[in-house]
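Exercise: predict the structure of this protein bound to PMT.
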Amino acid sequence: MLKGKHIVVGVTGGVAAYKACELVSRLSKQQATVEVMMTEAATSFVKPETFQALSRNQVVTGLFQSVKYWEIEHISLAQKTDAVIIAPATANIIGKIANGIADDFLSTMVMASTVPVVLAPAMNTQMYENPIFQRNMEVLKSHGYHFVDPCEGLLACGDIGKGKMAEPATLEDYLINLLIPKQDLAGYRILVTAGPTREEIDPVRYITNYSSGKMGYALAEMAKKRGAQVTLVTGPCQIPVPKVDEVVSVLSTKEMLQAVMSRYEEQDAVVKAAAVADYRPADRAAQKIKKQDDETISLALVKNPDILWELGKIKKDQVLVGFAAETENLVKHATSKIKHKNLDLIVANDLTLPGVGFDHDTNQVTLLFPDGRSQQIPMEEKTKIADSILNEVVHLLRQKHARK
Ligand code: PMT
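Solution:
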């Protein structure tokens, strides 16, 4: 499955370095091009020759054998690589990357790399639980680094606890999932709404909200990667638009309603991540409203159509997913929307939590289903949250199609 992929395996100094041999062997058997990069400390545990034989490639060690070679090669390696995996990843290398230290070939290459970097920590339990290490790990996660959690077991130091490097087969699976996205949405049409809507007051002012579009764009991007035919209906956002099949830009709720309704019939699923304005000014002034002498001014608002409610009303076989962004009584408010809007799933964000909801790169959500089931998705990058939501969408689509 990994044929043609170029993977750099970084090996740092820990007893689990011997397990990296099996990882390299597995990746080579998959016909990936594997280049091993060892820190100096790693060479005390396994000889470079072993990795050379298993990868059938030159092994780069942490030593600055040739400065010229090192300066050029770490950039060119970073550019031709599909993924970097560091296994085992010591507290030292994780601390270095998290703090921008690049003082050997491996750390420099990681710093120059723009491809996914997977870290498989291996260390003593106390080190793993040390708040400084945990902070470093969180910093890297927030920058999109991937972690494959260590397992519990008998550690090299004799302790029993968390810190044992994940098995090579687990790491291999992780790379496959990362580099070969599932195509479980192939054949399905999905419409995603994203961003805020904008309700004009006059030619220079409007009502809107803090939605950046990140959540909706992540859903559209991941659905596309998983093979769906994706339509993205987006309010005004300042972030790069993902490459999907159709992008429809709208401003107001009414425009969003029109864009969604006219495409609804042909969709298998609609995911409404947009933050839609519930009200709009009763009248949009044709000219800029001038400042007056009165201390207060009133703005009459009228209710906007509820797009999701409209969709729920005429739903046939579509899977309908709503979002709820709440500042109080999250589950109660979100649950009431499931029934009211005839949803198959609602994704609830608790806006009072740090890193959750509007404009963050991360999110933490609760999935709520009509049968009362619920599922917590812990704090992750929005792309990963999107993937977890889409897992449920796939499930719901299969259930609906099986019933047909
Ligand atoms: O865009 P980001 O910065 O990444 O932030 C993500 C997000 C917080 C905007 C997103 O995750 C989210 O929660 N979106 C829904 C926010 C919202 O408007 O919640 P609501 O409880 O007001 O609406 C419930 C559902 O009804 C939503 O799916 C909404 O799209 C839909 N709705 C609401 C009002 C309306 N008039 N029409 C609708 O379709």
